[in-house]
Amino acid sequence: MENQNVGADPMAGMEEQKTVYKNLKFGKVGDYFRGVLTDNSRQIKNNLSATGEMQTIYQFKAIAGSFHDIVKRQVQNDVTNCAPGEFWSYITGKPAIVQQLKTMKIGQIVGLRLAEIKASTKPGFDDTKIIKVFAGGMDPEYQGETAQDNKVF
């Protein structure tokens, strides 16, 4: 057992564990992501929704991806590229996307592409993003690794 005498700093000799969040946010038509589904079991409440709908957090191990991130509701000009092996999250509560992603299996290759942006018909509301979901085969190299194994969520 480690020395129980912690002295002035009770965390002395320990390494701080930090969570790294990498979330996919598609800002421009053509943005895409391709990866292996590693988790689809977590849900969070959408605090921005008046109805408090639940959103599913989908975890992927990247194969490829390129997108324009959104920071404080502004689409960034710089492109974010997803390196193979990195873990990324995609959070959605949109019924059409959730329904399509429910059919995917853990270890299956999945593609997401921002196909179209439709202007909002309600003032003050965000434009509607049409995300296309693509199903690939099972990844023969997938060994069950998840973002939790790498402290990336």
Describe this structure in words.
This protein is mainly beta and 153 residues long. The protein has one domain. It contains 1 helix and 6 strands; from the N terminus they run ββββαββ. The protein has one helix at residues 95-102, and strands at 32-45, 54-71, 74-81, 87-92, 108-118, 128-138. Strands 1, 2, 3, 4, 5 and 6 form a 6-stranded antiparallel β-sheet that branches. The radius of gyration is 19 Å and the shape is globular. The two termini are 30 Å apart.
What topology emerges from the helices and strands here?
Blueprint: E1 32-45, E2 54-71, E3 74-81, E4 87-92, H1 95-102, E5 108-118, E6 128-138
Antiparallel strand pairs: 1-2, 1-5, 2-3, 2-4, 5-6
Intertermini distance? 30 Å
- Report the biggest beta sheet as strand number plus sense, adding barrel if it closes: 6 strands, antiparallel
Overall outline: globular
> What is the residue-mean pLDDT, rounded to a whole number?
88
Coarse structural class: mainly beta
Radius of gyration based on Cα positions: 19 Å
Order of helices and strands: EEEEHEE
Q: What is the number of strand segments?
A: 6
Counting DSSP H or I runs of 4 or more residues, the number of helices is 1
Share in β-strands: 35-45%
Identify low-pLDDT runs.
Answer: none
In percent, how helical is the residue content? under 10%
Number of domains: 1
